[in-house]
TrEMBL record, chain A:
Coiled coil: none annotated. InterPro entries: DUF11_rpt, LPXTG_anchor. NCBIfam families: B_ant_repeat, LPXTG_anchor. Keywords: Cell wall, Peptidoglycan-anchor, Secreted, Signal. Residues 170-197 form the Gram-positive cocci surface proteins LPxTG domain. Residues 1-28 form the signal peptide. This is Gram-positive cocci surface proteins LPxTG domain-containing protein.
TrEMBL record, chain B:
InterPro entries: Sortase, Sortase_dom-sf, Sortase_F. It comes from the Bacteria. It comes from candidate division WWE3 bacterium GW2011_GWC1_47_10. GO terms for molecular function: hydrolase activity. Keywords: Hydrolase. Gene3D superfamilies: Sortase (2.40.260.10). This is Peptidase C60 sortase A and B.
Amino acid sequence: MNKILKTNLIVLGSFAVALAVNPAKAYAACETNYGGGQTCTFNKRFDIDKDVRIEGDNEWNDKVTGVKKDEVVEFRIKIENTGEISVDNMEMKDFLPDELTKISGDLTEGWDDFEPGEEKEFKIKVVVDPKEFDKENFEKCVVNKAVVKFDGDEEGSDTATVCYGDLEVTELPKTGPESTLILTVLGGLLMAAGSVLKKVVA
Amino acid sequence: MTWLIYTITTLLVILVLAFQLIRPQPAPQVKAQTSVKSPFELLNKKMYFPPVRVFTAEKNIDVKLARVDVGADGALQTPSRWDTGGWFVKSAKAGEGGNTIINAHYDTNNGAPAAFWELKSLKEGDKVFLLDEMGRFFDYKVARVFYIDINDPNRLDILEDGDKNGAVLTLITCGGVWDAVAGNYSKRVVVQASRI
């Protein structure tokens, strides 16, 4: 048996043993090197996107405001395998703030065989704790975070914000200019130019 | 020759099976069950969605909508862009019973016309349309155009929910005289329209 074949067999054997000992690891893409040995690229990458909407709405956003008592709020967590390898031992963990009460969905999900390009979607429905509305004339925002883990290590996270309260409108909207600085400066310049012209003519 | 017989037989079997599948079946006898709700009944439940665009037939108003809420100072927020309107998230959705409230800027910091510059020229009977997130149009007819003073004690009445059985659209922008010291217009132009 020649040397190159022996080396290759040893490398492949070691790789097989490593996989058998720790099956949770991602499968790396390996290439045989010229002259013996292998180069394995361990290229894993995940995208996580968390959105929120009030039940009944069509659009998903990063933030919802004006959530009322007993109104159902939906979170959507999308995780995509944007790497080049299939992975096992994936986990999604959602950190629900104390102010929100879960009514459906799971805060922790685990799965295997996550193929490149594959996307997982999880939905969690919550309501704001009714006790939160005992206060008067208030608005409060809470942030809900979700993380994606591979083999126990955090690989990414995203947040969505829920604002609720009973703030009432006490003033009409200010629908005019927000600043008239430009007009004031222009007016001043015109006045200055006018007085200069007046002096020149005189 | 044998293969030809096999092919023809197979095609005949497929044709007979296909005919069995597509021929009209006799209606099954169903006992009346009044207590069970049809799925179509559930689908018929009216659903409303936030408006994403407001436009008029007669006047030059065609404005995309963002969402606005109550600001920390208690004022109804205005949209961050001059060319965009703001739908109040706590008001009725497009076509829904109650009061759908939309406001937009009248002019910009440079004095140029903003999204609702032409609101003042709407007249009673003019048509206003709302487009919702699902691409559905809702038609409204202007019932009233009026000015309200920013210090009028009843000024907030225009933001009230109104009758849930009737869909009302309230459009608001600035009007009256610009008060440079207060940084505010003295009045608001209010257009109230009813769904037709």
